[in-house]
Amino acid sequence: MNIFKKILVAGAFTSSLIACSNNPSVAVDTLESVISQHWQVNLNHSPSLAAAFGDKDAKGKLDDVSAAALESKVQAYTIIRDKLIKLGVQTDNSAEINRQILLRQVQNEIDSYYFNMHQVPIMAEGGFHSYLAGMGRSTDIKNQQDFDNYLKKITQVKPYFEQQIAWMKQGLATGNTLPKAVLAGVEDGISIFITEAHKSVYYSPLNRLPDSIDKATQEQWQTQTIAAINSHVIPAYLAFYDFMVNDYQLNARESLAAYDLPNGKAFYHNRIKFYTTLDLTPDQVHQMGLKEVARIRKEMEQVIQQTGFTGNFSEFLQFLRNDPQFYPKSAAELLKEAAFIAKKADAQMPKFFAKLPRQTYGIKEVPAELAPKYTTGRYSGSNREDRAGYYWVNTYALDKRPLYEMEALTLHEAVPGHHLQIALNKELDNLQNFRRYGYISAFGEGWGLYAEYLGLEMGFYKDPYSNFGRLTYEMWRAARLVIDTGIHAKGWSRQQAIDFMAKNTALSLHNVTTEIDRYISWPGQALSYKIGEMTIKRLRKQAEVELADKFDIRQFHQVILEQGSVPLNVLEKQVQQYIKEQLDD
User: Fold this and answer.
1) Above pLDDT 90, what percent of the chain?
2) By three-state DSSP, how is residue 261 classified?
3) What is the DSSP string of 153-167?
4) What is the pLDDT of residues 527-554, one digit of tens each?
5) Given this model, what pLDDT does residue 373 score?
6) Taking a C-beta distance cutoff of 8 angstroms, is the pair 583, 547 a contact?
7) Number of domains composing the chain
8) 9 contact partners, CB below 8 Å, separation of at least 6
9) What's the distance, CA 102 to chain centroid?
10) Which among 92, 168, 219, 521 is placed 20 to 30 Å from 151, CA to CA?
């Protein structure tokens, strides 16, 4: 029996952990052994992760989100958490960073369970029903075993949906739901999957079978897949659509605030700490946001003067939102613009970075089933060596996708932003897997926003409109600090949040609305960007001042990225140590 089969036996590993913890004859845990145990728990409860790391049996499985499975998982994580606490502070700095980051990851799994986040498996921009469909886009069928595994997963779609709907019904019973205000149109994101089987995204792997598979076998597999989609996928989406329209949307909570959820105040404070990695109150975050909004507004006013525009700020925003000169005429034009900017950025990378990732990235459209309520762009990484990462560009509603924002967006999502940071992170083979494949939002999103700012030094934003686009993106992230805390802790209405964003940024009103609905349905996440960026910029300024002519931008960026995704307090220590070493040299 191989190691994966051993650890994937349901409940077996949890039971062994409990037995070990109660048996004094068992060897005392070390940090390395606890890290190994944690990784095995992850593999045990994530078939997709286990499959990626070589477990063939897991390739035909979907996640089990039943009550028993979730309880088993949280029990295993609780044991890991308690062991990490018992180990105490490590004398070796690298080991202590590992312990802190792992403790943070495990505690979040436990917190998510006890705050019943599994009862809300959807957001305004998507959910389990849209994310699961990604298996159709990511699966390549090369042989009989690949096909059998894929077909097995299709047959599990209906029970998987039933598990998720059962959790949502529990949420309805206690008021733990998405707010009704953000649910309009969510049903459209479900109905797009209710289609003829051969047009389904779940069928798409059958459209790209290799020529090495004979025609008769291809036809047989296609017939079997169509039958499975009709029997398992379409009924699952029909049932979910019916539940959403006739039950969930009608009975979802009226209030917006996370504070209004069961145990909501503690939940929101927990999310602030998780997403920022800092001990901040909603009031502190709100005030930080207001201060940044005022600062950025002054810079925006200066850029408006450079354009020669003679109207006021509000009139300039209307001009940007409505003048056709700023908008692409086709999806191809928008994608080509993104690709051109990305290649310009690629050429600048060696000047600013001593190490670049081996993995490449591509550019493609946001999938149609996600696009209407999806953000303007996003990076989608790959854990496979034979697949590139992708910078997704939203080509839905082209009259809401201004070209003057594309430089900032591309630098954030591709390079030197998310692709650079995430791909390098995965190539840090000196780190444990839980860190190589982990993501800390304050670090990652802070880096993405810093990457937009770095574009000034890389030769971008020469046009004042593009520079205003950069500032409107920075303002967007600063306004989030005000809006997220305003909604979830200060009683703001949805319209109040929309108005604040609309009057301070040049984002299209469509983007403003989708973004506000995102913040309402994802408490705290929006806080990570600006707080992370402010930390990185502050640390850079400190290094420049203290090191003077010893400061090297390539070396500084290496220090920021060389330990992977870390909490902001750990990042601060990394930079302080770097400064000390340079001064002592």
Assistant:
1) 91
2) coil
3) HHHTHHHHHHHHHHH
4) 999 999 999 999 999 999 999 999 999 9
5) 81
6) yes
7) 1
8) none
9) 19
10) 168
- Measure the CA–CA gap between 301 and 484, rounded to whole angstroms: 25
Average pLDDT value over all residues in the chain: 94
In 3-state terms the chain splits into helix, strand, coil percentages (rounded to 5) of 70, 5, 25
Q: Compute φ and ψ for 253, nearest 5 degrees.
A: -70, 150
Range of the domain at 471: 268-531
Other Cβ atoms within 10 Å of 181 Cβ, number: 19
Residue 224 contacts by C-beta under 8 Å, 6 or more apart in sequence? 151
From CA 77, how far away is CA 114, in angstroms rounded? 12
Kindly state whether residue 331 falls inside one of the protein's structural domains.
Answer: yes
C-alpha separations of 328 from 138, 254, 371, 406, 572 in Å: 29, 38, 17, 11, 41
Instruction: List C-alpha distances in Å: 557 to 170, 515, 585.
Output: 47, 30, 19
Q: Say yes or no to pLDDT of 3 above 50.
A: no
Cis peptide preceding 416, ω within 30 of 0: yes
The H-assigned helical ranges of 175-252 are 188-191, 215-228, 234-243, 249-251
516 Cβ neighbours under 8 A, 6+ residues apart: 483, 494, 497, 498, 501
Name residue 400's amino acid: K
Under a CB-based contact definition with an 8 Å cutoff, are residues 38 and 7 in contact? no
- Are 524 and 272 in contact by the 8 Å Cβ rule? The answer is yes
Q: Is the dihedral of CA 46, 49, 54, 57 positive or negative?
A: positive
Residue 322 · residue 432 · CB < 8 Å: no
Residue 105 domain-assigned (yes or no)? no
- Distance CA(374)–CA(396), nearest Å, equals 9
What mean pLDDT is predicted for residues 48-69? 95
Task: Confirm if 245 and 190 have CB atoms less than 8 A apart.
Answer: no
What pLDDT score was predicted for residue 8?
A: 34
Which tokens is 450 given?
């810093």
Beta strand 122-123 with 126-127: parallel, antiparallel or unpaired? antiparallel
Residue 246 lies in a domain: no
Read off the amino acid at residue 559. Answer: V
Rounded Cα gap, residues 101 and 435, in angstroms: 8
Task: Determine the Cα–Cα distance for residues 571 and 560; give it in Å rounded to an integer.
Answer: 7
**For residue 362, which of 332, 339, 340 has the smallest C-alpha distance?**
339
For residue 404, being part of any structural domain is answered with yes
Report how far residue 122's alpha carbon sits from residue 531's, in angstroms, rounded to the nearest whole number.
26
Q: Judge whether 498 and 157 are in contact, CB under 8 Å.
A: no
pLDDT of residue 27: 59
Mean pLDDT of the region 425-440:
95
Tell me the residue type at 418: H
- Whole-angstrom CA distances from 112 to 9, 100, 118, 119, 318 are 24, 18, 7, 10, 42
pLDDT greater than 90 at residue 18: no
393: part of which helix (H) or strand (E)? strand 389-393
* Non-local CB neighbours of 442 within 8 Å, separated by 6+ positions: 275, 276, 277, 278, 528, 531, 532, 535, 567, 568
